[in-house]
Amino acid sequence: MTKSNYSAALLSDFGNFVLQDRNAVIMWESFDEPTDTLLPKMKIGVNVKTGKKRNLISWKGEDDPSFGSFAVGLTPETAPQLFTWNGSSPYWRSGQWDKTKFIGIPGMEGRGSNLQQDNIQGTTYYSLDNYNNYFFAYDFISSEGYFMAVRWVNEWGTYWEAPAPTNPCDIYGYCGPFGVCNLLNSPMCKCLKGFKPRSDEEWNRGNWTRGCLRKMELNCQKSANAAASTTVKKDMFWQLSQIKLPDFADFILIDDANGCQSWCLENCSCLAFSFVNAIGCMAWSKDLLDIQQFSMDGEDLYIRFADAGAGADGGVDADTAGIFICGLSKWRGKFRKMTIPGLFRSVATAIRSDKLLKETAWKEQMKEDDASKLVAYDFDSICLATDNFDAENKLGQGGFGPVYKGKLKDGKEIAAKRLSSSSGQGLTEFKNEILLISKLQHRNLVRLLGCCTEREEKILVYEYLPNKSLDAFLFDSKEKAKLSWSVRFHIIQGVARGLLYLHHDSGLRVIHRDLKVSNILLDEKMNPKISDFGLARMFEGSQVMVNTHRVVGTHGYMSPEYVMGGTISEKSDVYSFGVLLLEIISSKKNTSSDYPEQHLNLMAYAWHLWCGGRGLDLMDEAIADAFSTSEVMRCIQLALLCTQDHATDRPNMSAVVLMLNGESKLSQPKQSAYTFQSLLARKVQSQEGIRSMNNITITMVEGR
């Protein structure tokens, strides 16, 4: 193709869409106009000389891409900070940059964050580095104001989020001026030493935003007004450790901690100081705002006060906040029945739970319905039931966190799923699972008994199923022989009935969104039960499909329209069910790379065998001696129908159940272009000797 004399458009491997003139000079690039997502090599920040700001702007809603009210940007101060603003009001801040990390984000090391400040150009920019594709990650601001770091580790997951849904202290100025927030304290807000609540009445009601005021005038202020012959004591400094330092710091050109303290002591306007090795001396002359005490990381902050006895009562304990350890407390045996709304109100950190309940009419209906009640277990009872979450009782690990076997005082066996601090899931998924599964009752769905929300814990308590999950049998070379064809077909039918109930018969129309073998649990009679509803989505009224900006799920089970366009419907679960069928038949993982003849995945291999009239070769050799040929061939054909490229070509679960039972005729499946194109791309790469972790292509669009 002859190159245009005028312009060209180029899409880079990093996702930057660039317009160039005929001399390859960049005229415009998409990375200069950020939306709600920060990709590696993109920059957000500010140029103080031109006044130009590059901020991330949230969507108005999850399904509405117009500009929302939240923005993420960078301040140009000497130690820059990331901010999330709600309109023009600060909503969250990162703390100061110390040349490797933001010190107000505990455990931030290793995130691949970069910050470049050029005082001559007047620019301050923040960016991500994926270390030459060593890992894949991006930052994202949600329509609800959550600034999230998302990373690919076998699947996309949020590994950091601010403000953390479980930590109100992350919200800017939560305890007001001269107040400090500690999630482990009760109440969470306390006044700094030498200060008292501005309004006792508001403070006692839990309204802390107006903060605190000084009890006693500083000695340096007295000295300025005292007669020359009067001796006035010097002020003192009170040390707070593991602190998110306040906003509005002034940078002082002093290079040691003693000099920093002396400077502050000699300047009566200095209310506090901190010396951070990688930053230097910082001092505060304005209200100390947005202070948080961490249980790890953080810096030392020195607060100025009049004398050692001032405000000793009610002040913050200077000792480092301890890490809570589950102890063998005395069995209290307390539990009580709660409605779902009552349960959420008991979670001190769920400050936005009512918003979740009020978002739509169906949630209001659930809120008013007292028919569904859960047991709210106290934390001590769960500790004792699981032997303090002993590793010997660990049943497995999911996206939410570890699952432990336990036995309650009455002898009832339970499975306790405890949210992990490193989990990619959080409060939203926790509430979602409670809201949905507590309203669903079916023999092929796992039964939720209750939950625990004491001491900032989030634990779901389920019925205990002795045979654990399907993958423990299916992908184990010894255990899979226990799954005869009759047992496998029984499991397939049970999962199909469970999905049919979710989609049509429950009255709630639920899309699971994460159907996979590890989420199929087995009871003592090998009856299957669908579990893990943290990512489930409920449809309202006559809704058929919906678009979601955040694609979540498990690689290999997600439908093409969901992966590429974020569109979910009942047919998304049907696609996952088709993949599940093939895995149950073959005892092979769809994402495995050891299929013969360079087949990309299990679906491509199954299609190859089906077209060659060798469908039965897909059968697991461990049970190849005893099975129903007609049932196996019917299941393979149905699996190929369920995994068709276009959602309209897939049957719904009503038709699937009829086909499984032989009560409905199966149509012929079409070849999957989605799988075939991926397979073709792999073959081309192999032939050309291309070895790359990143298969993103570069597209040139020539101008006329």
Automatic annotation (TrEMBL):
SMART domains: PAN_AP, S_TKc
Entry's EC annotation: 2.7.11.1
Protein kinase domain ranges (all copies): 389-666
InterPro entries documented for this protein: Bulb-type_lectin_dom, Bulb-type_lectin_dom_sf, Kinase-like_dom_sf, Pan_app, Prot_kinase_dom, S_locus_glycoprot_dom, Ser-Thr/Tyr_kinase_cat_dom, Ser/Thr_kinase_AS
GO biological process, one term: innate immune response
Membrane topology: Single-pass type I membrane protein
PROSITE patterns: PAN, PROTEIN_KINASE_DOM, PROTEIN_KINASE_ST
Gene Ontology MF terms in the entry: ATP binding; carbohydrate binding; protein serine kinase activity; protein serine/threonine kinase activity
Domain of life: Eukaryota
Subcellular location: Cell membrane
Pfam family, one: B_lectin
Gene3D superfamilies reported for this sequence: Phosphorylase Kinase, domain 1 (3.30.200.20), Transferase(Phosphotransferase) domain 1 (1.10.510.10)
Segments forming domain Apple: 220-306
Family affiliation: Belongs to the protein kinase superfamily. Ser/Thr protein kinase family.
Protein name (Swiss-Prot/TrEMBL): Receptor-like serine/threonine-protein kinase
Phylogenetic placement of the source organism: Eukaryota, Viridiplantae, Streptophyta, Embryophyta, Tracheophyta
